[in-house]
Each structure stands twice: as structure tokens, then as C-alpha cells.
Sequence to fold (677 residues):
Amino acid sequence: MYIKLVLRSARRSLSDYALYLVTMTICVTLFYAFLSLSSRYYHPNIGTYYDLTFLSDGLRLAVCAVTLLLLFLIRFVDRYMLTRRQKEMALQTLMGMEQRTVGWLFLAETLLMGALALAGGILLGALCSQLITAQLYRAYGLAYHVTWMLYPDTIGLTVGFFALSLLAVGLVNMRTIRRLPLITMLKAERLNDKPLAHSRFLPVVTVLYALLLLAMLWTGVWQMHLFFDRRMAWPLYLMFGGNILLPAAALGLCLGKLIRRKHYPFQRFIQQLTLLAILNTGCMASVPKLREVYYLALSDGALNQYLLFTLAHLIFIICGVMFLLSTYLTAWKERSPEIKYHQLNLFFFGQMLSKLTTTSRSMTLICLTLTLAIFLFALAPALTSWAEGYLEVRSLYAVQINSRYNQVYDEADLPRDDYALVSQFLQDEQIAVTFDRTFNLYLPEREDFHARVKWQFPVAALSLSDYNALRDMLGYGPITLADGQFTTHWQTIATAADRDAFLQEHPRAQTDAGELTLAAEASHEEPMGETLFNSYTDVVYIFPDAVCQELLPVMRNRYLQTAEPIPYDAALALEQAFSRVYPEGSTNGPTYAIRTRTRQVNDSLASNFVLQSMLTYGAVVLMVICAVVTPDASPVTMLLMFAAMIMLYEGSLLIARVVLRRRIKRQNEELAAEEDE
Fold:
């Protein structure tokens, strides 16, 4: 009887369940499609040069992270259906059916619809996984042929996850149905969201913001500790001081609210906190520009932190403004009767205040979500393109071996090895070597060995013969130096301003073999690998061989090229064998590192694909959330959402601009150089 009742009710309410079915099917499709690439049965034919272990692990973590968004969406859609069906449930209760029974019937209906969504989503997910696999093959530069296969472990995980999610949400709904008064169920469709002022949304956002303020304060104190200098310009004082004092003041407000809960109105608290957030946004947004103007040695990681903090401030400002807007609008209306009663303003104010008090939370969430989705769509290709371009200047050699003297305090402990282990390994694996060069990097003056300070390491020097050998290995032409002359070679990430400033300050080089003068061809910028440079420096000197013979060698490197790419398993075994003999980290002695092109390319491509997949997956899920939770399409609602979204979108663009600035600038310089030639 109950089965027939469930089937009849589901069939009769099919139009109401349309949104539920479509949304759940999309969720299942995306979940299965991305998770299938981490299946143990997933074995694409990518050859011996690549390995998918890192890709599978990364995708699994990415899917788990985005799954949190799916849980929110499942909960929202289920609550939507509960709201739509409450009137019918109330009528069933009035006809004599127990609310407990009504709850069980609703659970059975949702599980039935969930089963249909699971079946359709898995089939669509299998098709969608082919598209993702095609993108994977494209990323690895391989041809793709369509194959159709369902993966048992992925199906099991998908069914298990959604079954448990639907069951958990359904049990919560049953409890809700049993406790709802009949009058509430009858009026459910006419009820609006809680006003933002009376909801838990803003207090939760405020708590999360306070936790971020702790991170902001710590970052500000740490960066001040690293870069404080009495000779700094006053804008830097304002920037560093503001990034400490403003988060501290905001945390003080939060602490004051916590202590004086009853005597400190929440509205005034949010007002003051929003004002501090606006000031802090301006202070943190100035960091990239001041870093560029004053040549501040701020790391890219720290810069990214400040940019993320800026976006967090903007999000909180949007929430605070949406909370305060109705109050300010009401006060302005009452203080300006000539505006209040002018033409249709009274109706307009009424509509605006109604939307702000009834759908403000939904609009705030939609603004944040949609802006984040757009930002992720824009950021995914930008970041992957940047990473692929960066890979081109990193993986230049089949094998790179480099040493560091950072923790060496006695000249007798400096690296002198020829790394014969590598030669023996390649010989045992029958891997032919076409180019092989072992070389030293020198300090211009012996006293520099004991004068090294973090971020201020002395510039190392390379002999002309070794430099030309490396250039020949990479297909570049040789250079010449007259007696008593030197030149420089720069990393590709170095800016033209940094290069010009350095060359202007160093027209001569003092060495243990005498003074050298800068050659007419003062700099070279061809990609030659990151390990060619000393710690924390973007430049290396090129000295005549006779000069280098009298200098102190402090680093010992070796670069090799092979006739054929090294298979992935062999590259991994080589790196592991090298690490067992040569320490990668040491507190007292030299450190060593080995890089193979195979591992660099594979891990970089895998990381890029995981990053792009995660951003695209998250963006699609966020877009689906926006489409589902949009309250209505009235002009007032759209206007409020549009204004808030513009603010957040501009903040997102700021981050994207800063991320891409260096790459675009470098590309423009390369184009200008080509045009000059």
C-alpha cells in the first residue's frame, strides 16, 4: 500500500521534482566524471614517459574538497522540496495520516528520485569522463580514442556518497516534519527567508573573518620583522604599520563584542568592523604596487597571501553592507520626506526594504558564489598557461644535479663530487647520453664565503668555457670575452628594471684575480635552468677561465642530455638512488638536489590538470548553486545582486591582474626584443 502511495505521489509531483532531479543528476554526473580519473581501473595509454599516480591522488583530494559544496547543494534542494510539499503534507495530516508516516513517505519519495538521479548521473558521468580524458590526453600531447567503460570502484563511491547524503538529509527532514505545526506547513510557500539581521549567517561570517584577522595580523608582524628598515619610505611605513594595526584593531572590536555582548549592539559592531575592513582592504591592495615601486623583496607567496586577504576583506564588506543597508536606507528615507514622497519613491523604497529584509541572505550568498565561479573560470586557464610557460624554462636538461653551500661553514666541506652514481645508473639502464657537463660555481672574492646573509647571498660566477658548453647543450651560440671583462646571465623571471639597476650599480667586479670591467654585451637572458643561480639571486657572473682558476669554488653542478627521454620508472629510481647517497637537507654541510626532465614534466602536467579540473569543477558546481538558490528575478533583487557582484568581481580581477602581470610584461619585452632584431 505504502509503495503504491509513494509511486503515485512521486508521479503526481513529477513537475515539482523536476528541479530536484536535474540538480541531483548534475551533481552525480560531475562527481562520477572527475572521480573516475582516480579509479584503480583507469589505465589510459600514455606511454612509459608519464605516470598518473600523482594525478590520481591530486584529483581524489580535489573532488573531496569540492564535495563540500555538493553537500550544501543537496541539503538546499532537499529543503526546497520539503517547502514545496509541506502544504500537501499538511492536508494528508488533516485527513488522518500521522506526521511520522508522512515523513517516512517523503523520505521514500526523495530516495526514489535520488535513485533515478544516480542512475542517470552515472551514465552521463561516464560520457562526461570521456571529455575529461580527452582533455587529459590533450594536456599530455597525445592522441585520444573514445573508449566506454564503467569503473566499479567509482560507481561504489558515488552510490555510497549520495546514498548516505540523501539518507542523512532525509532523516533530518523527517524530524523536521514531525515537529512542524500544521499552520506553518500550510503557509510554508509564502514564508520568506529570515532577515539577515536575525539569522546566524552574519555571526558565522564574522567568526570566520576574525580567524582570518589572526592570520592577517601574524603575516603583518612577520613581514615587518623580515623587511623593517629605518630608511624605508613613508608609504612603506604606512603599509606595514596598517597591516598590523588595522587587523589588531578589528580583533580588539571582536574581543570587545565577546566581552560586552549585551551592552555592545551588534549593528554598531558590524558598522565599525566594516569600516576597518574597508581601510584594511586599501592597505593590503597597495602591497603589489608598493612592492614594484620600492623594489621590495617580498616573496610571491607573501604577495599571494595579501591578495587572498584582500578578497576576504571584500567578501566581509559585502556581507556587512547588505546587513547595514536596510538600516541606512530607512534612516535616510525618514529624514528626507521630500525624497520619500516624490513620485514613486515610496513604492521603490518599500520594494527595496522588502528585498533587503527577506532575501538579503540569499542575495549575499548568490553574489559571493557567482563572483567566485566567474573568477575560477577566468583563473583556471590563466594559471595553467603560466605554469606551462614556467615549465619551459625549468625542464631544460634530461638530468640536473646541483649543490648548495648554505649550511657549509668550512671551506674543506664544500662540494667537490663528480656524481659518478648517475653515470653508472644511466649505463646500467642503457640510456645513451649526448651531452654531459660537470662544472663549478665560484665566489668572486673568498671573503664572500663568510659574508652571506639570507636574501643577500653573493652573486656566484661561472667560467666562460663552462658557460659556452651549456649554451651549446641548449642550442645557443657561444659568446666571447676579452681579457679583463665579464658579463652576466639572468633568470627569465628577473625584470628589466632589476637587471638595469644591477648593471648600473656594478659596472666593475672585484675578484681575487683583480678587477674586471663589464663587457659591451652586458647581459644574456636565454633560459638555462634555475639551478644555475646562487640562493636568492637572479644573476650569475660570467668570468674568463683564467680568472676562475684563482677563485673559490663553492658549488658543484652537473647537467646531462640523453638521446631518448628517460622512462618515468627509471627517472624515479634515479632520483631515489641519488637521494640515498647525497643529502637533500642538512644543518651542517652541503645539500644536493637532482631533477629529471621526465619527473618535472610529468608532475607539472599532472599538477596543472588537477588545478584546472578542480577550478572548473568548483566553478560549475557554484554556477549550479547560483541557478538553484536564486530567490526571484525581480528588478530590485537583480539590482542589489549586481551592485554587490561588481565590487567582488573587481576584487577578483585585481588578483588575476597581479598573477598575470609578470608574465605579460615578460612577453611584451620578448616581443619588443624580437622586433628590434
